[in-house]
Amino acid sequence: MDLTEEYRNKLVTAEEAVKSIRSGDRIFLAINSSAPFTLIDALWERHDELENVVLGASTLMRPVKVFTEKENNPFGMTSPFLGPVERCAMKIGLPSEYTSFHLSQVDTWVYDVCRPNVAFMQVSPPDENGNMSLGPSGNCIGKYLMETADRIILEVNRQVPYVYGIDGYINASQADYIVEADYMLPPTPQGDFDKTTEEIAANVLREIPDGATLQLGIGLLSSAIGYGLSDRNDLGVFSEMFSPSLMYLMKNGNITNKAKGFHDGISVFSFASGTQEMYEFMDHNKDLLSAPFPYINDARNIAKNNRMISVNSAMSVNLFGETAADCIGFHQQSAVGGQLDYVRGAQWSPGGKSIIALASSFEKNGKRESKIVLDFPLGTPATTPRSDIQYVATEYGIVNLKPLTTRERALALIELAHPDFRDELKDQAKRAGLI
Question: H-helix or E-strand containing 426?
Fold first, then answer.
């Protein structure tokens, strides 16, 4: 049987494919921009027929009824990284579990926590050899799904870019069912930069030299930093995420990847989230290479890049210099993700730096509150410990905490706080014996 015939023989409708789902199954749905929404929506149509089905997912790009409908919902959720859709499943009371893992260990999460016996996978149309790309985000975890699941259902979406990758392909011979679709991938919202964001970005940009290798996270601040690098030369990319700002720098000639010392000439990443323009840019682009999280987030691989600059955010920083980036109190917001992987790897890199960047304050119910605090609320776990933190930046400056004593750290962080809170923070620090 040739590959074309095998593909045709496995081709079914989404409704036919999800008939293979049984009560008690554990299904991995998707991560981020590689969600097979045709299959997920078809699965919901069977909700009255199923019981106790566990769905693995992370940062889905649009609401899905399996996680947003409360009544007669047989689905539970497990996730290594929560986004708004996964938090909705928790909020409405579906059986939901978050497990704290570094992204460098996501293979262990698949094998020991998610344990899917079914994998939904969105892929590109096949190439001349019958191989389908796992798309902009599927390769970050796809290898481990293929090793674990005993049923693989592919959604071949005409709009999915063919992305080159390490272990980033699947063949019709490996699938049990194939469903075809044709819809644009949901875009990541793009917003305007406010004054505070621009000021934080300006402070961070001072620490990024020509020839730096970049890791930028998700969000407006990372975008502002990315677009702010348009005057730099010979930048490189070794990053969990590929984004529109990195695409812009590649098109503009700022990213050449020739000074990295590791995967020279190629921008390397695990998942991509952005605009239709970006997804079109990624299609059959040999200057891009996707790889699984355990490869991209391995601190030993990160350290192989020259002048690795890692920029991550946090919800709060205490006066010891610890970050709370994924959970405040007992409320899980996102995940540990790859922050500590890159904080460590960047500092091991020749000429590298790790930077935590955040606004000094925020407004809640009309009241301004500080993100620089004496201590976190009860129950808050530290995402990155004080012993690993290097640079911290707000709109009021940037400081290298690494060589500072406990007293010097507290004083330096107070200077990064909003002026409205500095006196109060000094008083608190004195009563605590920090200064």
Answer: helix 419-432
**What is the reported pLDDT for 83?**
95
Give the mean pLDDT of the chain.
Answer: 96
**CATH number of domain containing 271:** 3.40.1080.20
Distance of alpha carbon 87 from its chain centroid, rounded? 15
Amino acid 351 reads G
Q: Are residues 278 and 371 in the same domain?
A: yes
Helices 195-205 and 220-227 sit at what angle, rounded to 10 degrees?
A: 50
Alpha-carbon torsion (389, 337, 201, 255), positive or negative: positive
Question: Do 315 and 361 fall within a single domain?
Answer: yes
CA distance 208 to 185: 32
- State which residues form the domain around 369: 195-432
pTM of the model: 0.95
Closest CA to 119 of 29, 52, 39: 29
Instruction: Please tell me the predicted confidence (pLDDT) of residue 218.
Output: 81
* Position 165, amino acid: G
Residue 1's pLDDT is 47
User: Active-site residue numbers?
Assistant: 240
Structure token digits, residue 250: 């590649």
Quick check: is 79 in a domain? Answer: yes
pLDDT digits (tens, 9 = 90+) for 326-344: 999 999 999 999 999 999 9
Residues 6+ apart with CB under 8 A from 25: 53, 54, 117, 118
Helix (H) or strand (E) holding 169: strand 169-171
How far, CA to CA in Å, does 58 sit from each of 67, 74, 98, 141, 195?
Answer: 12, 19, 10, 11, 31
Cβ atoms of 401 and 321 within 8 Å: the answer is yes
> Comparing C-alpha atoms, which of 291, 284, 288 is closest to residue 270?
291
244 touches 219 (CB < 8 A):
no
Instruction: Kindly tell me the sign of the dihedral angle through the C-alpha atoms of 322, 100, 143, 242.
Output: negative
For 71-84, what is the mean pLDDT?
Answer: 96
